[in-house]
Give the backbone structure.
Amino acid sequence: MNKKELAEIKKQYTQQKCPATRICGCYVDGEKRKQTQFREAFLSLEEEAFFKYLNIFRKAMSGTLGKNLLTMEFPMETESEGGTQELLMKLKYTGLQDDSVLEEFYDKIIESYYYVGNYLILLVHGAYDIPGKSSDNLEMFDASDEVYEHIICCICPVNLSKPCLSYNAQENCFENHIQDWIVEMPLIGFLFPAFHDRSSDIHSLLYYNQKPEAPADDFVDQVLGCQLPMTAGSQKETFEALVSEALGEECSFDMVRTIHENLNEMLEEQKEEPAPLVLGQGEVKRLLEQSGISNERLEKFDEHFEEAVGEQKPEFVAANVVHSRKFEIRTPDIVIQVNPERADLIETREIDGKKYLMIEANEGVEVNGIVIKEI
């Protein structure tokens, strides 16, 4: 899913539009025991609970695409009878009204999801009547020809509130506040099916992870049946290793700075596009070529790529491998951070046989917050 598709679904989850029809939940304790379950019409919820649930489901559609929001396709075998996709389809088609299907789904999560503590499994079923669009891209609400029927699942930790003092307005005094069990924002969740080209795509889903570097592999594998891409951190590490290996002896300060600048230019050119900029093997090779790598090193790039990424041949989300707001230089003892637009203020020099990083510093130099008059 891209930014426009995600925004279209997310903005439906408001009080005025709300496509949710039914909500279900299963509260699981730290021993993996079901403590309670519920199922009711979403629009019959009390107003305060209504808004709190909306915030939870909206949170599962919030974040950065390619980092903690991932569109994942179902492998072919998961779509066959008995596959993971089949259970998700049952949840959708039954509108969360079949207790046996719900029990099977809850059991699958409890078996595969590892969390130290209590948590709440939340499910909502929604039906969005997709409005048609005119040639000038205006919505025509009386021209809909498809209903996007979907489910959103969230797994939320349930923790005791912190002990504190509270003010009792009736007694006009401060007293010990009774601790409550609080449902927090989701750690993981998903939207199924995905919403592609303003239509339902049962062959993929949108996965949310609050902590993308802790991807809940077992849950994704056993409940969703999908294959997780590399995390944002792993993409960055792999990309950096690949560039270092591909450049070899040509991995100079100026070369790395040029690659950084070219990547940021590519991001700037693509910033209005709804889908994130993705770099495959060919794109990375062209990036190095544009940055000035020699033909000799370029000819060996494919070999280095295979060694760095293995058989999976992943794609890198550009925003995950380059920092658009920071240009950082590290030595064992010094860290320098530079505005990426002024990386030209740093150059390399060799003086008396020693190598130096030279920083142009004409004015506005501070040391520990003190303005320096003379360097």
Remarks:
- The chain has a mean pLDDT of 90.
- The longest strand covers residues 146-160.
